[in-house]
Amino acid sequence: MKKLLLLFSALFSAGFLFAQTDCSDIFISEYVEGWYNNKALEIYNPTKNAIKLDSLYRLVRWDNGKTTSADDPMYVLPLTGTIESYKVMVIIQDTTKPGQDTMVWPELRKKATFLAPYDYDGTTPGGRCVFWNGDDAISIQKKQNNGTWKDIDIFGEIGVRPLDWQGGTTGAWTDTKPYWRGTGVYLTKDQSLIRKKNIYFGIDKIRMSHYGDSITGIYPNSFYAFAEYDTMPANFFDSLGHHICNCETWMSVNNIKGINSITVQPNPVTNNQFTVISFVPIASVEVVSIVGRSLFVREFSSHQKEVKIQLSDLPHGIYLVKIITGDNQSVIKKVIIQ
User: Fold this and answer.
1) Which of 8, 19, 78, 303 is the most exposed place for a label (fewest CB within 10 A)?
2) Domains of the chain by start residue, with CATH
3) How far apart are CA 156 and CA 186, in angstroms?
């Protein structure tokens, strides 16, 4: 047991675990890849405090599988302004000026709270950023204390350009493994994708690397949008401007009653069993994978405040435990299963 704990500590120090924690920083909540210039990205603040973006956050479009786009100011959009608690910012192209080839549709334009420069052939910083067409990766980057930029949420896969069904370069990530070869249905081209409400933080490169292992099998070679997004047809804009996320519910509960008032013991979990101890009766316990897949659910009707959970033989890794209390409140705990 001591060796396992020391190994876990070493992995954490080396940066192998997820840098972000639940409901702690902004992430992409909706992606729109519509016809012509109908492109949009919605960014959600899942925290209880307003987040000021100036000089700390930026958006990068990784054009056609490139890995150097962050070094080209034309593909880097500095983000400014403030996103209030549990609110969103909707970014679209500024095609309101004369000379643009195709205007953003009025129903999308009225959703915008941030206008990105439309200057593909010019020199304006960020002028080529909001031009994705289904085969580009997009990331939100945050400036670190040492002055470097780190991806805190990634849509698509940096360094990969998915093919079309003929093997050409007009494709997108699809619903069929390995997701980049053009087989199956396009998910990132002519689609609007809405982040699932049980996603609490973005995908960084470390988390993406975990998707490529044999345990999860979710991202064996590339980006699988269905793991974290629901899909809507092209030019669907109705849900832009607000995002439904469980962060708001469980953060509010934790703020009122204290996040430490419900505990999972032991953590790390050994032998696939643990105990949940609560300050109020427990209605249900659910264990969810890091990509939102429900692996275990048990309901309780006897108003217990302490319940023992025995899981099947789950692979070692990080999981979320969602506890619903008798008054229909929820708290989410992160656990490590060894």
Assistant:
1) 303
2) 20-245 (no CATH), 248-337 (2.60.40.3080)
3) 13
